[in-house]
Amino acid sequence: MQHSEPDPTSSPLARFGVELRRSRRAMRWSQTELGRRMGFSNAMVSYVERAKKPVTHNFAVRADEVFETGGTFYELWRRYSRASLLEGFAEFAEAEARCRRLRTFELGVIPGLFQTPVYAASLEAASVRRGSISQEQADERVAFLAQRQQLLNQKAPPTIHAVLDQSCLLRPIGGSGVMRTQLDHLESLASRPNITVQVAPFDLAEHRPFMLPVVLLTLPDRSVVGYAESQLRGYLERGRTAIAAWEEDYDQLQVESLSTAASLAMIRAVRKDLE
To answer: What does pTM read for this prediction?
Structure first.
């Protein structure tokens, strides 16, 4: 039975499958022969070529070894693994790495750039237990986050303004020990001259401008893009009218949230309650 080839532009997983099939055919190997050389079944090879099963780190490494491609399949796997975090997130991460100013509002969890490795790993471990992702994907997410966090330690880091909903402080991700360390780290970051942290208290209630997390990035050319997420995907907003509205709402959020001093006092109080 003939299977139609996936469109390589449709997803990183499809791109991996098409490249695997092209390389296999160039060697004039059957799927059974390639599976034997890689240590996988011919069925697994077929599934990957048709983008029907996720690619593992080991599969990508073995493909590079068998085809002597010097890391081509590993790089395709990394793109797939990153893209699997959330549709649209890779594009955001590229813009984030270039930004000169970052304004963020977070709901429920500490912003990714501010997360400790253990806090981040706790979040991903929960996704593994739910069956949403594999352990390999969880490890890749944590490693990718560490790479993003290098932005904070650049020679000329961007100016960052973070407004955290009060729920970010009160949800004990990973347990009280992990959360104490996380709050210590948050307070340390807030002491940096380029980072401002505010808390949007619960009593802001319905007057809080944003109902979902949002990020505003000012790029080197002074243009501003926004990023928002749903449960299934994220997207970059570039429309001037939409961005102007987001910036106006963010200005209102800054004004109505706690002052930096009051915010730090709340962070310390929550930290003390966890002891």
So the answer is: 0.72
